[in-house]
């Protein structure tokens, strides 16, 4: 069955009698946090309450203060470009450098338009650059790699990891955030081949394993997307993207 199956009797209404873990005791958003049983829950249709770390809903002014003196670079696929759009529209943050990386393989013509990968981008950030500004670099490796073999994917992310480690040596104040994949629709049977959700789930595990322990921040939105009130499409609606940005800001300014 290629569609995400729905369990009989769901969605269920639960009455939770014991109190949930209170946000006060969550640790600040940082690198290598343990993965909780649940990443959080939607308080209502517009606000997600993460249980991974202590986050907040940011006002425009707070976001501006958070990103002051920061060079924000976003490098990845169209789902990251959605975050840039939300930063611009919802938070009025305009000063963002973006690198759109979207290789395509399979029956679509291979397209590597910019010819720039993470290592090219990160190696250009010199000691002199990061002595005057804090760099925050947001990366992702997700929906375009569903048809890669495990080995090809691991090679792909391993080179990025080495570039991250070189950057961290040159620029110890820089911060790397990796946005992980989320489950998506599989409307046509072919999509289960190039975009199986199990493959994306496994990619997240590979990314955590390869980049773990070196100080990278993982922006894990799997549960946020799958428990949202929306269908799980590759490009989620803005309400969900905005909540991803709130969590990202909580990692940038814990
Ligand atoms: C959702 O909850 C937040 C925080 O309590 C509140 O500010 C917002 O107005 C609520 N939104 C809706 C649509 O109910
Ligand atoms: C950003 O920092 C500069 C200089 O440190 C300051 O003048 C400016 O008011 C700050 N802007 C915000 C939004 O905090
Ligand atoms: C690094 O600094 C140089 C010289 O100021 C500048 O030309 C270049 O664009 C900077 N690079 C990045 C990645 O910010
Ligand atoms: C989800 O997809 C179904 C089937 O395509 C559609 O009927 C429904 O309106 C969608 N729901 C939302 C919230 O977009």
Structure write-up:
The chain has 254 residues and is α/β, with parallel strands linked by helices. It has one domain (40-252): Rossmann fold (3-Layer(aba) Sandwich). Helices cover 36% and strands 13% of the residues. Strands 4-3-5-6-7 form a 5-stranded parallel β-sheet, with helices on one face. Strands 1-2 form a two-stranded antiparallel ribbon. The N and C termini lie far apart (42 Å). 34% of the residues are buried. The mean pLDDT is 90. Bound molecules: 2-acetamido-2-deoxy-beta-D-glucopyranose (4 copies). Residues 43-47 line the site of one 2-acetamido-2-deoxy-beta-D-glucopyranose.
| CATH class membership | Alpha Beta
Radius of gyration: 18 Å
Task: Write the CATH fold name.
Answer: Rossmann fold
Going across the biggest sheet, name each strand in turn.
4-3-5-6-7
Domain module count: 1
The portion of residues forming beta strands comes to: 5-15%
How many H/I helical runs?
9
Low-confidence stretches: none
- Average pLDDT, all residues: 90
> Which percent bin holds the helix content?
25-40%
* Succession of helices and strands: EEHEHEHHEHEHHEHH
Taking the alpha carbons of the first and last residues, their distance comes to 42 Å
Q: What general form does the structure show?
A: globular
Question: CATH superfamily, called what?
Answer: SGNH hydrolase
Tell me which CATH architecture applies here.
Answer: 3-Layer(aba) Sandwich
Tell me the total number of β-strands: 7
Can you summarize the main beta sheet? 5 strands, parallel
Pfam families: NXPE4_C (PF24536)
Protein name: NXPE family member 3-like
Organism: Saccoglossus kowalevskii
Domain NXPE C-terminal: 122-253
